[in-house]
Amino acid sequence: MDRKKILVLIFDGLGDRPISELGRQTPLQAARKENLDWFAANGINGLMDPIAPGVRPGSDTSHLALFGYDVFKVYTGRGPFEAAGVGIPVKHGDIAFRCNFATVDANMTVTDRRAGRIKGGTEELAKALDGMKLGEGTEVLFRAGTEHRAALVLRGKGLSPLITDTDPHEEGAKVLESKPTAPVAESTARAVNQFMHASHRVLEEHPVNAKRVAAGEKPANAVLLRGAGVVPNLEHVGERLGMRVAGIAGVALIKGMFRASGMDVLDVEGATGGLDTDMTAKARAAVEALKSYDLVVVNVKAPDVCGHDGLATEKVKTIERIDAMMAVLRTDLGPDVVVAATADHSTPVSLKDHSGDPVPLVVFGEGVRVDDVTRFDELSAAKGGLGRIVGRDLMRVLLNVANRAEKFGA
Amino acid sequence: MDRKKILVLIFDGLGDRPISELGRQTPLQAARKENLDWFAANGINGLMDPIAPGVRPGSDTSHLALFGYDVFKVYTGRGPFEAAGVGIPVKHGDIAFRCNFATVDANMTVTDRRAGRIKGGTEELAKALDGMKLGEGTEVLFRAGTEHRAALVLRGKGLSPLITDTDPHEEGAKVLESKPTAPVAESTARAVNQFMHASHRVLEEHPVNAKRVAAGEKPANAVLLRGAGVVPNLEHVGERLGMRVAGIAGVALIKGMFRASGMDVLDVEGATGGLDTDMTAKARAAVEALKSYDLVVVNVKAPDVCGHDGLATEKVKTIERIDAMMAVLRTDLGPDVVVAATADHSTPVSLKDHSGDPVPLVVFGEGVRVDDVTRFDELSAAKGGLGRIVGRDLMRVLLNVANRAEKFGA
């Protein structure tokens, strides 16, 4: 059998619901998108529930599902994937937290949960905390994220995520002492509290904060921790599938999903994750990557951004820019590549958040049973030859089309 | 997000197969039903397998699945739900039985398994048995059902359902001694046998039976037990979904399903569960209930009755009466309600019993992706935007449309 390579295009938050402003059409129905429709017309189409029918996925859980993991078993919270996303080389057993740089008074009362929405200097602050040693041999790995966000990883023996947050989740309240919710986590809570106090001392005296105070800005003099999660033992996608796998994405969380799943993360100039992202650069990078990788996954964040911001016509325009990206793939990909185009979830403009509505999926490549669907949208896909599948089946479906599936039985 | 309320209409046994008498159409295809079709035309449609493709559901298992339970885990037999249906306040751990009032001779040989299809007086007979104390602290809860039917619940320590029936399931045979099928159930079998003999003595001497004998009727002088089942620990639907939930039904078994699932059971005058049931009264009661409940489930038994009785034209007429009910809902429901209309299973007229054929499902409400299906029937539904789902997904799908689904992940 002629084994093919696979390109998976995940258009983040692409699915939608009918929108009055668009004449009761979804953005996909309203957009001019001859290339996406060409793939639909020449491929096999279906609906996909990223996790299960009706379940509202996060971007993290849905990507794990699309990579073939059982999310109900492996998803241990957002912390581990955000930490991987900001570049911390997480390991199975690490305890990861989502963090805010915050402003506290002398009494450890939170006066600003976002340290005046701090924009600059957090990398230097993070560097001052990274590498700190805590009691009982626990190491600190700390990185800044966007704006006031950051990630903390504790690495050591006998750590447990069964502890409470230090983040009081409101201003005017004191930073909380972390408490174990089970006896096994006593030493972890001690380490967290030690970090809370030690990091406060380091940050208070840091030149970045001295400058902020001098400029009348709120100092980022504390770190609030929440959502402790243990880094799961994810079998690498490439090992599971027997393929060399790379991921292309603009945003940190998705890069973290790629890294945690054992994929090589390829950087593409101009791939920002925002509305200004250079999608055709991503397409060209994917074509290039398929020369050395067997499976390339591309995430395009822009449609999700439009959904969260409630921008209907912007989402239509974004889809038309995606279509220009598909034009590149339509011309540049050879017959040795199977292409899947889909979404990680719907982000309806009317909701400004993710929904549990299924997403369209088209699979294109030599050998697929081409159905009579001619348009790529949520309702046309429902009439396609794939029926309705769940995200966890995607990789197996693609391996099959790529003539890479192993026989189960004889 | 604008959270909506949910109305679920379960037309019992509605699905069917092509019938010669109806020109090879199903009753749904043959009926004039402009309102049901209006909901189909303005909603999203699909097929639903109440349990799984090809599985022939009972009304009890299908309702549990439609409420979101994993029936393969929680279904412990019909006894517990029938007992709840006749109004016994069952508790987790109780052992419940389905019972017949029967006629036995002096030798305990069954001469009539239905006590001459006794109609009156069973409530008094039941009252004489209810509250009886057996050995080892076991209590008896006993209620009459319709005609010769009744339900028994044993409540006490160390009870087990692993025992054989006392019902010989044929006339001319002696009432059987219950036997444990595992050592753990020895004391339960003793309690059951004690109940069998004690109830016989009480019933023999009961004035209701004295009158029956005087009138030349067969006395209801024994209780036959079958289908022992332990009452499962069902997490209440309302707690699971975070909603106030009510159910409307005419028949005892379905009321029992509602009660066992923690729903409030609303009584509607004229809602009998038979062909003469007042369906528009149920519709009006549902509209009213939606003022104080978030989720209202309505069961309409009539189509199932037609299926079991093999009445094709009667099933068509019943669907036309259902359509009048839908007219009420079409006018009276506000945009704050999501409506699902479906069935708990198919009861084909040609089979006179339940079948494993999937049932049509329409979901109507603001925000659904309206597909191009214009008729509500088994084959039109197959072309809808929902594809094919299983019953256990129904609640999640509806929560999503109602903007009530919780996000899994971030």
Describe the structure concisely for a colleague.
2 copies of one chain form a homodimer. The first copy, chain A, has 410 residues and is α/β, with parallel strands linked by helices. Chain A has 14 helices and 14 strands.
Question: Your description of this structure?
Answer:
Two copies of one chain form a homodimer. The first copy, chain A, is of the alpha/beta class. The first copy, chain A, is 31% helix and 19% strand. The first copy, chain A, has 14 helices and 14 strands. The mean pLDDT of chain A is 95. Chain A binds chain B through residues 17-18, 24, 26, 46-47, 51-62, 71, 75, 78, 253, 348, 350-358, 378-379, 382-383, 387-388, and chain B through 1, 367-372, 383-389, 393, 395-400, 403, 405-410. β3 of chain A pairs parallel with β14 (407-408) of chain B, so a sheet runs across the interface.
